[in-house]
Write a structure and sequence with these properties.
alpha/beta, single chain, 14-stranded mixed β-sheet
């Protein structure tokens, strides 16, 4: 080994030369750049501005509804705090508005059409709870079930062809059908609209009567009919039956007398041709005003009934119905009258003497009870479950009204 000029061996590597001889390790990879925050349903984010605007708009709409409710309450629009519960359909309306302003997967035109449909249903329900529109309107809506099939078919075709405007058209069709049911098909004088009726070729008029019997002092009457316009009033004969209807479906009048008591029965034949549609039918009945009637009973289907009982001495009135729009007028000839109403969807107006002492008990899934000044609510919440009302009266008859139904609209009026 040779030495360099400094006396070091030339074969010995130096510290610097060894460092250069070793390979330099590769630099570590750079950490990945995290993605930009996308935001959440409750917070802002680059991709969520439309949703944020939807929530802000929905909150503004809900705030407007609260302001409206508060202003109506301050203006005396509610007779009690319970009346606020009549406004529950506003939740349906609010949901429809949110459906229109809140962005989601559907196109704008589809969202608007669906939202308007919810708003239309909410408005009709609001009319129900305030007694402007009878609950029986939903029975009329059912009569338009073929329209529902058409709308469903349009929806399926539009979905299969990916045509949003066609799907929106199905919602518009349902809205128009609802408006037609409310504004056109509701029962009126001389015409009744029913979803399920009976038909035959042509119509006929009919008339039957049982003459006054001085030996009869008391009695009961039962009316069993289906879809029809029905009237009942006081008369001079024991019982009369008049009206019109399909040929072959003449109602029957029967009166059996036993020991000074009469049992009057009005019924329809049991064999009908069943179909879906509407039809004009009418039945007019009178009962003898000289008889003391223990009970007048109505077992009816979908009827528009006007029973003026003010000229009769009647102690008990029973109305059992599937869906009806009825008006009952109670008189003062009896010291005490009990009115019992039960059924499905019922819209009923009861007229009572202004001096009558009244006790009202309403029990139903959804009820709307409207009473005149002088009545006070003693228990319950309007529209939910059971509620009671009383009026002291001033020497008139004692009238007890009991309502048991699924959906009901009860209005009390005085005369």
């Amino acid at each position: 080994m040779s030495d360099d000029v400094n006396g070091q061996a030339t074969g010995q590597p130096t510290e610097g030369s060894a460092a250069t001889a070793v390979a330099t390790p590769p630099a570590p990879p750079a950490p990945p750049v995290p993605p930009a925050p996308a935001g959440t349903a409750w917070g802002p984010g680059p991709g969520n501005h439309g949703r944020d605007r939807g929530y802000r708009s929905g909150g503004a709409v809900f705030g407007v509804l609260l302001v409206v409710i508060g202003l109506v309450a301050l203006a005396g629009g509610f007779t009690s705090v319970f009346d606020v519960f009549r406004l529950w359909p506003l939740l349906v309306i609010f949901g429809g508005i949110m459906q229109m302003v809140h962005p989601h997967g559907d196109a704008v035109v589809k969202r608007i059409a669906e939202g308007l449909g919810s708003i239309a249903v909410g408005l009709v329900l609001l009319g129900n709870t305030f007694g402007i529109i009878p609950w029986t309107v939903w029975i009329t809506v059912i009569s338009l079930w073929p329209l529902l099939l058409v709308a469903l078919g349009i929806e399926l075709v539009g979905r299969g062809l990916h045509m949003t405007w066609l799907r929106a058209l199905s919602n518009v069709l349902l809205i128009l059908g609802l408006a037609y049911a409310v504004l056109v098909l509701q029962p009126s004088a001389g015409r009744v609209a029913f979803p399920f009726s009976f038909t035959s070729a042509g119509t006929q008029t009919f008339s039957d009567a049982r003459q006054h019997d001085a030996a009869v002092t008391s009695g009961s009457a039962t009316v069993k009919v289906g879809a029809t316009r029905l009237t009942l009033a006081a008369g001079d004969k024991l019982a009369t039956l008049d009206g019109q209807g399909p040929i072959g479906e003449k109602p029957m009048l029967a009166a059996s007398v036993t020991g000074g008591a009469v049992d009057v029965q009005v019924s329809e034949p049991g064999d009908h041709v069943f179909f879906v549609g509407t039809q004009d039918r009418s039945i007019d009945i009178t009962l003898d005003r000289a008889v003391r009637w223990r009970e007048v009973r109505f077992d009816v289907g979908a009827v528009a009934a006007d029973a003026d009982l003010s000229g009769l001495d009647v102690s008990n009135v029973l109305l059992n119905t599937g869906a009806s729009d009825a008006r009952l007028k109670i008189g003062s000839r009896a010291d005490a009258v009990a009115v019992d109403v039960s059924g499905g969807a019922t819209s009923i107006t009861v007229l009572v003497p202004a001096n009558a002492a009244c006790n009202i008990e309403a029990s139903s899934g959804l009820s709307n009870v409207r009473v005149p000044a002088g009545f006070r609510q003693t228990s319950g919440i309007v529209g939910i479950g059971r509620s009671t009302y009383v009026a002291a009266g001033s020497g008139g008859p004692k009238i007890t009204i009991t309502l048991n139904s699924g959906v009901s609209d009860l209005r009390i009026e005085t005369y």
